[in-house]
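In this section we walk through a basic example: taking a raw amino acid sequence and producing a predicted 3D structure, encoded as discrete structure tokens. The instruction is simple. Fold the sequence below.
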Amino acid sequence: MYPEQPPGNGEPLLRIEALVKRFGGFRALDGLTFDLMPGEIVGLVGPNGSGKTTCINVISGLYSPDGGDVIYHGRPISGMPSHRLVQIGINRTFQVPKPFPTLTASENVRVAAAHGRCDCTAVDVDALLASFELDCYAGRPAAELNAGQQKMLDLARALATGPSLLCIDELAAGLNPAELVRVAERLRELARSGITLLVVEHLMGFIDQVTDRVIVLNAGRGIFEGPLRGAVTDPKVIEVFLGTENGD
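The resulting token sequence is shown next.
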């Protein structure tokens, strides 16, 4: 049985150890290692193809790793199916939301709470929808919501399961500036409540608003770990994003 509360004494909530994921001869993850602490917001950034979404897919159980391990609450969880991971406190959002299109927004959240919650506490579905300005659309089929509203519904569904760790994949893409500000504040509130967030995002302004630190990936490996302001001056990061001066 996994503990319901995040570990104390400075122990990581999640530890990624030398993680490897292959697709044929291609190593999408190549020995990736990092820790996530309780209540921390960490950005996972890097160029396209660097392994960011693959990392989230392994953590959330969509892929099994080909090497290394994922340690949650001090126990290995590699290869555990997604539905079981949700029940022990790990959930995620998707780049392209995947609601039940014919169910209403409220029903989508209720299904998530009923079948995925990792404890027996009740969920205030109306309040959860209102926190993402979806209360006016509670009775509408999810298929009728626009792209931004579906992203907020995806986040509400994940939160309805009561996660300790929430992986967020490209949530900011397509949101307008006012929406970005509201979402950034909501994510900070979640972290203050004790939820650990791993955020994959290309919008560096958004990453700067919400994260405590970033992990920069390139070719499936971590090349930098620390505050974003340090990443933008790091020679390895500059080379990956901008290339060398002589074009090599």
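Looking at the output, two observations stand out. The beta strands are 14-23, 26-36, 41-45, 67-72, 75-76, 90-92, 165-169, 196-200, 213-218, 221-226. Residues 96-162 form one domain. In the next section we compare this with other chains.
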